[in-house]
Amino acid sequence: MPEFRTVQCVVNDEPREAEIEPRLLLVHFIREVLGLTGTHLGCDTTSCGACTVLFDGLPVKSCTVLGVQADGHDIVTVEGLGSPSELSPVQEGFHEEHGLQCGFCTPGMMLTATGFLEENPNPTEEEIRWALSGNNCRCTGYMNIVKAVQWAAKKMATSGISARGARG
Amino acid sequence: MMAYYREDAKVLSGGMSLIPLMKLRFAAPATIVDLNQIQGLDYIEEAGGYLRIGCLARNRAIVRSELVRSRHPLMSSAAPTISDPVVRNRGTVVGNLTHADPQGDWATVMMCLDGEVVARSTEGERVIPVSQFITGPFSTTLMPNEIAVEVRVPGATNFGEYHKIERKVGDFATVAVGVALQQQGGSVSRVGIGLTGVGPSNIKCYDAERIVSGGGLNENTIQQAAQAAAADSSPRTDHRGSEEYKREMVAVFVRRSLHAAAGIRAA
Ligand SMILES: Cc1cc2nc3c(=O)[nH]c(=O)nc-3n(C[C@H](O)[C@H](O)[C@H](O)COP(=O)(O)OP(=O)(O)OC[C@H]3O[C@@H](n4cnc5c(N)ncnc54)[C@H](O)[C@@H]3O)c2cc1C
Ligand code: FES
Ligand code: FES
Questions:
Q1: Residues of B in contact with A56 (CB under 8 A)
Q2: Domains located in chain B, CATH noted
Q3: Of ligand 3's atoms, which has the minimum distance to the CA of residue A50?
Q4: Which of A43, A97, A138, A145 to mutate to test the pocket of ligand 3 (most atoms within 8 A of CB)?
Q5: What is the pLDDT of residues B240-253, one digit of tens each?
Q6: What is residue A80's three-state secondary structure?
Q7: Is the shortest distance between the CB of B95 and ligand 1 below 6 Å?
Q8: Segment B224-241, tens digit of pLDDT
Q9: How far apart are CA B10 and CA B124, in angstroms?
Q10: Of A34, A78, B216, B248, whose CB is crowded by the most CB atoms within 10 A?
Q11: What distance in Å separates the CA atoms of residue A131 and residue A109, rounded to the nearest whole number?
């Protein structure tokens, strides 16, 4: 008999509440219970980073966090970047610099980049490469992803918009 | 709570080892006690002659801590080599020690620095040196009703380097060597040398440490210490490299760090 737990959290600025099994992983909670399928499940072994979301502002691999651990916390998924009318600087950077091919790694890449740029808005190329080293991309060879993050940093500096973008 | 649930329960800190084990069904706890709900366990502070690391201090915080860098540079050198930046946002030092992966990096660092685990239960508190805490692969002297609340490191060291060969970011060590020293004007008052990935568990190189603490740092003691550390290792040939290669790299890294500490440019 599965036991259920109530989880109350804020996801992309909206309060959410659900009854879930304690063993449910955060990635499945986000995708299947909340219906936010932008977060991808790649390796399921804490290696690839496709499942990265922001947990109280920090990138975490949601395949290795329990859904119940989100109780009382703030989660941002790729759906929470930018607004329907305006891309966030990081999203725009990936668009402008062609930072994706198949797009599978992209949500995780963008959330890691967003968390990183909030902490270090003016990074060197080397710092960007280290920051993204827990996220794998099998298509692009990383060059354009690094350029996309550099583009976002520049945009943030000139526009004053945060890495996550203007909301509303 | 641990007294109540005992063997049926598992403590969850960062979850970066426990949750992967549960996915593989290597662990199937009936109850999980999530320490993340408890406030005030993520401290990194100095008190009573110890650098104290609370059980919810993440690897992320160690990487960024100026206090850690100023007291034990070996810790600051090792932390950025452990897992990857996203995993470090959750994984903890204490969780790494209690997990006792034979390839784990923190146990080696703590053996170099004479670190101690503080364990607490409803029956009281005890302090266990990390060199006695780890009893083998994935096994420690922690009792089922105990929680490791802190790891603490005495005093300070003014030199520390962790050299780790990994095939890619996030991989465990092919070979890693930690060296920590406290030295003033050519005399060495404290030395720690430890190895990761080259034996059934973490290795503290007592002989190499004695050579340096007894004879100081000179070309002769450095060569001897490097040979002693290599002799302490018992690596196995595997997908990460051959036995001979790993043993040779132990000697190379011990030499490199001791040369750096002595200010000698390697030949
Ligand atoms: C992709 C990847 C790469 C990695 N690479 C490395 C690496 O290169 N080197 C390395 O050393 N590690 C590596 N790790 C392991 C990582 O550092 C883990 O975070 C760490 O080993 C466990 O810490 P945790 O806080 O996540 O512990 P958890 O997963 O929460 O717990 C691990 C174990 O310890 C027990 N436990 C945890 N906290 C306590 C406590 N306070 N008291 C009593 N018991 C407790 C748990 O019950 C469990 O059995 C890697 C992990 C991943 C996912
Ligand atoms: S799916 Fe989580 S790290 Fe790959
Ligand atoms: S764009 Fe295909 S995996 Fe990164």
A1: none
A2: 2-34+41-154 (3.30.465.10), 159-262 (3.30.390.50)
A3: 3
A4: A138
A5: 999 999 999 999 99
A6: helix
A7: yes
A8: 999 999 999 999 999 999
A9: 19
A10: A78
A11: 10
- Nearby residues of B41 by Cβ (< 8 Å), 6 or more positions away: B35, B54, B55, B56, B57, B149
Q: Could you tell me which chain B residue has the CA closest to the CA of A111?
A: B86
CA distance A160 to chain B (A): 26
Nearest ligand, measured from the Cα of A42: 2
- Residue from B18, B12, B21 nearest B56 by CA: B12
Q: How many helices (H) and strands (E) does chain A have?
A: 5, 5
Contacts of B154 (CB under 8 A, 6+ apart): B49, B50, B113, B114, B116
Q: What is the pTM (predicted TM-score) of this model?
A: 0.95
Going by C-alpha positions, the residue among B206, B156, B207, B216 that lies closest to residue B182 is: B156
The Cα B168–Cα B177 span in angstroms is 17
Distance separating alpha carbons of residues A4 and B119, to the nearest angstrom: 32
- Answer whether B85's CB lies under 8 Å from A135's CB: no
Asked if B195 and B233 count as a contact pair (C-beta separation under 8 A), the reply is yes
Tokens of A162: 């945060």
Query: Mean pLDDT over all residues of chain B?
Result: 95
Walk me through the domains of chain A, giving residue ranges and CATH numbers.
5-80 (3.10.20.30), 89-159 (1.10.150.120)
